[in-house]
């Protein structure tokens, strides 16, 4: 089962984060007082924007768990994903692309996928499965599908924290030449704001936690043909992923052999 359609939003977000640039944002209710400005100067004192970006990527990679939410748009279409992932391979999340919706869980190394009819139709059409695809759509719609190991390995890209976060460090040169704007807040957390313009005229804005661990809080890509916003929250919180009830699970391998639908 090809994963391109299913994880496009996650992959797009991860690639955007890989270009760890940033843009200016004004702090809500900013007073601009001398005391406030002095406090901001102490945040990451003596560190360049590039060094702050490097530190944030390292901290995010080392986090035991995180929630990654993405909103993306391209060619007149929108996509979104929302995943909670940890370093043990557990995950729970959703993908939407236009009217197509899918939910994924990974528990004890087993990956389950549940999607609506629009999702299966789009995915199976992409694979060119014809009549077999239509039959599968009817069987899989609104059921939890237990993905075979080979398919799960490709499909669970959004569920693999290490793989997603690894893209942050894919090209260290993309974090060079950044500038720092005025500190702001993201979901009530103080954040350093970093900035970089791409060769394509896009502005990448990166928000890094300025208190406690220097985690990445948000990355925005604007000004281009494919704007993306990715937020990182719930660091260190357990992933509450549970296997679906057996009676709601379809095993495609058994189905192909004429076996029972439930695993």
UniProtKB/TrEMBL annotation:
Biased composition (Basic and acidic residues): 34-44
Cross-referenced SUPFAM superfamilies: Prokaryotic lipoproteins and lipoprotein localization factors
PROSITE patterns linked to this entry: PROKAR_LIPOPROTEIN (PS51257)
Signal as UniProt keyword: yes
Span list, region Disordered: 24-64, 236-263
Entry keywords, A to Z: Signal
Coiled coil: none
Signal peptide (UniProt feature, chain positions): 1-16
Protein name: Lipoprotein
Source organism of the structure: Streptomyces cremeus
């Amino acid at each position: 089962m090809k994963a391109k359609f299913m994880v496009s939003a996650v992959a797009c977000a991860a690639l955007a984060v890989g270009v760890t640039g940033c843009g200016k944002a004004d702090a809500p209710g900013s007073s601009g007082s001398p005391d406030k400005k002095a406090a901001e100067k102490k945040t990451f004192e003596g560190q360049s924007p590039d060094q702050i970006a490097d530190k944030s990527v390292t901290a995010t990679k080392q986090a035991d768990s995180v929630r990654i939410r993405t909103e993306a748009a391209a060619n007149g279409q929108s996509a979104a994903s929302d995943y909670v992932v940890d370093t043990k391979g557990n995950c729970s999340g959703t993908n939407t692309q236009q009217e197509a919706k899918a939910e994924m869980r990974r528990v004890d190394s087993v990956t389950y996928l549940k999607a609506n009819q629009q999702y299966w139709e789009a995915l199976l059409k992409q694979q060119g499965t014809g009549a077999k695809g239509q039959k599968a759509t009817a069987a899989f719609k609104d059921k939890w599908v237990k993905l075979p190991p080979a398919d799960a390995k490709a499909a669970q890209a959004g569920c693999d924290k290490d793989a997603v976060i690894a893209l942050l460090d894919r090209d260290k040169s993309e974090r060079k030449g950044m500038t720092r704007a005025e500190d702001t807040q993201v979901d009530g957390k103080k954040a350093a704001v970093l900035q970089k313009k791409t060769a394509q005229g896009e502005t990448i804005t990166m928000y890094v936690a300025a208190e406690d661990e220097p985690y990445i809080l948000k990355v925005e890509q604007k000004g281009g043909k494919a704007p993306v916003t990715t937020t990182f929250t719930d660091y260190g919180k357990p992933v509450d992923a549970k296997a679906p009830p057996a009676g709601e699970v379809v095993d495609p391998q058994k189905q192909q052999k004429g076996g029972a639908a439930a695993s």
